[in-house]
Amino acid sequence: MAIEAVLFDFSGTLFRLEADESWYADLTRPDGQAFDVDEKAEIMRRMTAPIHHVVEFDEETQYAWDHRDLDPALHRKVMMKVLRASGVPTDEDAERLYARLLDPLEWTPYPDSAAVLDLLAAQGVPVAVVSNIPFDIRPSFASRGWDRLVGAFTLSYEVGAMKPDPEIFRSALGELGVPAEAALMIGDSAEADGGAEALGSRFALVEALPTAERPDALLAALRRHGLVE
């Protein structure tokens, strides 16, 4: 069956959270030393880790982690613990970093995100963004005029289901009016985004590399599936 719709993940697929030095201004380790490059990168990775544990949790925090993208309050609770366990020295510092995570205008698009959205729109192929996330990402698109290119934003905290639960993919496909067998899901997690295959959709994996290191993976994924020449 020909592909009639494309579903995209958000974090690590269309956009990536990338910090500049302003994120770490006045931030030091508990020993008073500045965070090095690797430590800063690890903090960012832990804030955006899609599936796997990044620190040890007690039972209450484990519940918050497992349900974090369904409830903004649970997400905040667990991420405060993750940041403090990652060496962020104070609650105030953790709050400052967390606020930037929640700001959709802080996220950086991949170099080919605009191109794939434009190409699909030109071909009349509808698009949905399917994301495990506890906040509204629509401003990331609207600020660039890309919201008109997205037929559905299917966000876990709004629909009450998280990838890989088939329900979140079913919701997106229902909004687009396309059968699962005619859809392609593109994402950076085989475990989460690959859940679309349970409904019969195709899946393409991209790596969640820094945006400067991944110029055309989305275009390549479309090309592999016959959507780009």
TrEMBL record:
It is an enzyme of class 3 (hydrolase). Keywords: Hydrolase. Coiled coil: none annotated. It comes from the Bacteria. It holds the Pfam family Hydrolase. SUPFAM superfamilies: HAD-like (SSF56784). One of its GO terms (molecular function) is hydrolase activity. Its EC number is 3.1.3.-. PANTHER family: HALOACID DEHALOGENASE-LIKE HYDROLASE (HAD) SUPERFAMILY PROTEIN, PTHR46649. This is HAD family hydrolase. The lineage of its organism: Bacteria, Bacillati, Actinomycetota, Actinomycetes, Mycobacteriales.
